[in-house]
Amino acid sequence: MKFRRSERLVDMTNFLLDHPGQLISLTFFSDKYSSAKSSISEDLTIIKETFEQRGIGTLQTIPGAAGGVKYIVDIKEEEARQFIEELCSVMSSPDRLLPGGYLYMNDILGRPQMVNKIGRIIAASYANKKVDVIMTMATKGIPLAYSVANHLNVPVVIVRRDNKVTEGPTVSINYVSGSSKRIQTMVLSKRSLATGSNVLIVDDFMKAGGTLKGMVSLLEEFDATVSGIAVLVESENTEERLVDDYLSLLKLADIDEKDRKIHVTFGNYFSS
Amino acid sequence: MKFRRSERLVDMTNFLLDHPGQLISLTFFSDKYSSAKSSISEDLTIIKETFEQRGIGTLQTIPGAAGGVKYIVDIKEEEARQFIEELCSVMSSPDRLLPGGYLYMNDILGRPQMVNKIGRIIAASYANKKVDVIMTMATKGIPLAYSVANHLNVPVVIVRRDNKVTEGPTVSINYVSGSSKRIQTMVLSKRSLATGSNVLIVDDFMKAGGTLKGMVSLLEEFDATVSGIAVLVESENTEERLVDDYLSLLKLADIDEKDRKIHVTFGNYFSS
Q: Do B53 and A143 count as a contact with CB atoms less than 8 A apart?
C-alpha cells in the first residue's frame, strides 16, 4: 500500500512523538510507507520545520549508512515562562496550606496534562545531556519522574523507604533528613539499576535537600553518575541547603501560616 | 502567519494527540492557523482517516455551533494481541521468580514505552465509557494509572496505606487482604476526589482481589460509581476471587517454584 504525503506526515508525526530520542533510519520509514527515501527526506524537512517553529522540539539528522533521524523534545522559553507563571498562581492559593508549612499539591500532580508539561520543561533541559535513567523517591515523585522519562525515552527506577518482597534483593543506605534531622533508610532494588549509569534525579519537593543528598549517596553504591537533580518546588525557608547543583521550576519563597498567605515565585530554571 | 496544509497536518496531529478526549472547536484551529474552516475540515478528514487506518485512534465529530472534534485513543486488536504475546514471553522468564510466588516486574513497569502501550490498551477499552478519574494504590500501580489517565485525559487519585501530612484531611477504611487475611487500612485524601465521580480502578497485580475490593468500598464513602477495574496481571492461583467484574491483560496461570517455571497466558482482555 502506497501512502500519500499527507498521510505520511500524520503517521510519521505520531511515530516520532512516540519514540523520542530514538534513532529511526530512513529505510524504516521508506519501507513502512513504500515510498522513496527522497520523499521521506522531504517529509522529515517539513516535520522538522514545523516542530521547531511551534516549539514542539527538533529532529536531529545523523548522516551515513547507520544514520537516520531522532526527535528531541523541546519547549519555547515563552511557553515555559507562561506555564510556570500560571503554576505560581495556582500554587499560591491559600487552601493549599497544610500544617507544618507543607503545601497540598495532589491536584496538580494528579492532572496528566500538568504533569506532562512539567515533565517536558524538565526534559528539555536535559535532552542534550547523557541520561540513561530517571530516579525518584516513592511516592510523590513518581508521576513527574515518568513524565520526564517519557519525553527522554529512558527507564525509571524508584527508591523506597521500606523493603518490599516484589523488589528482589536490594541495596539500602541510611541518611539524615535535612529538616527533621532524623536518621532514615532508603532502599533500591539491586537489579533495577545497572552499574555505571547516568542518572537524572527528579522529585516534587525539596526542603533542605536531605532526601536528594541521600539519593546521591545511594547512587555511589551503584557507581552511577549524577546527570542532574530537578525538582518542581524548592522551599526557600531553610538554613542550609544540602545539595548545590539542582534545577527548580518553582520556589516557595514564604509561607505566612497566621495570615494564610503563600508566596510562590520562579525557581532557578530561567537563571541557571 | 498563514500555514500550509503540510504544516497544519503536523501541528494538528501533535495537538490532537496531546489533548485526547477533549472537544476542540473548528474555530480554534482556524484561528490558530489563520485558515478557512473548510480547509481545517479537510485536514481533519485526512487525520481521521490516517488515525483509523494506522490504528492510532479516531476523531469524533460533534456538529453544531458548540461542536468540534475530539481525538479518541484506540488500538488495533492485532497490535494489542502481538504486544500482549510479547509481554507473556517477557514475563515468563524464570529470573522473575521471587519468594512467595511474586514476580519481579519493576523493569517492565519502569519502561515508559511499555507502560504507555499497556495504558493505551486499557484506555482503549474504556474510551467510550464514563470515566472522570483513575484511582490506584500506591506505589506499584501509579505508573500504569498515569498512563491510562494520559490516554483518557482525566486526573489520577492515589490511595495510600498510611496517612501523610501532604494529603490534608483523609477518609480511611479497613479491609481484609485476600491473600494474607489480615486487616489493613487504606487512606484517600478527602479533597482529591469529588463526590459522585465515575472512577476507573487500575492496578498492576491482582491476587485474591482484596485490595481492589477495598478500593471499591472506599469509593462508596465518596458516593462514587465504579466505571471498571483493570489490572495488568491476575494471578490464577487463588481459591476465591473477591471481585467479579474486571479486565486483565495477563494471567499468571502457574508458578513452579521448584523447577523455576512461570506460566503466563492471556488475561480476559480478548474474551471479556
A: no
For residue A30, give the nearest of A71, A70, A68 by alpha carbon.
Answer: A68
| Residue A101, H or E segment | none
Per-residue pLDDT of chain A (272 residues; tens, 9 = 90+): 668 999 999 999 999 999 999 999 999 999 999 999 999 999 999 999 999 999 999 999 999 888 899 999 999 999 999 999 999 999 999 999 888 778 899 999 999 999 999 999 999 999 999 999 999 999 999 999 999 999 999 999 999 998 888 888 999 999 988 777 889 999 999 999 999 999 999 999 998 899 999 999 999 999 999 999 999 999 987 677 889 899 999 999 888 888 889 999 999 999 86
Helix H segments across A19-137?
A: 26-32, 37-53, 77-91, 106-110, 112-126
Of the residues A55, A73, A91, which one is the last residue of a structural domain?
A: A73
- Show the domain range for B110: 77-266
Number of domains in chain A: 2
Minimal Cβ distance to B9: which of A10, A189, A191: A10
Whether residue A214 lies inside any domain: the answer is: yes
Among the partner-chain residues B115, B140, B157, the one whose CB lies closest to the CB of A166 is: B140
pTM: 0.96
* Pair A91, A223 in one domain: yes
Whether A244 maps to a domain, the answer reads: yes
Interface A:B, Cβ pairs < 8 A: 160
Closest CA to A142 of B13, B156, B265, B255: B156
- Domain-located, residue B19: yes
Which residues of chain A make contact with B59, given a CB cutoff of 8 A?
A: none
Query: Does residue A62 belong to any structural domain of this protein?
Result: yes
Contact B74/B56 with Cβ under 8 angstroms? yes
Of A103, A111, A142, the CB nearest to B142: A142
Q: Are residues A50 and A116 in the same domain?
A: no
**Residues A144 and A18 grouped into a single domain:** no
Is B160–A167 a contact, with Cβ atoms under 8 angstroms apart?
A: no
Task: Collect all residues of chain B within an 8 Å Cβ-Cβ radius of residue A29.
Answer: none
CB contact (8 A) between residue B142 and residue A140: no
Instruction: List, in sequence order, every residue forming a beta bridge with B183; answer none if it has no partner.
Output: B176
CA atoms of A193 and A166, how far apart (whole Å) = 15
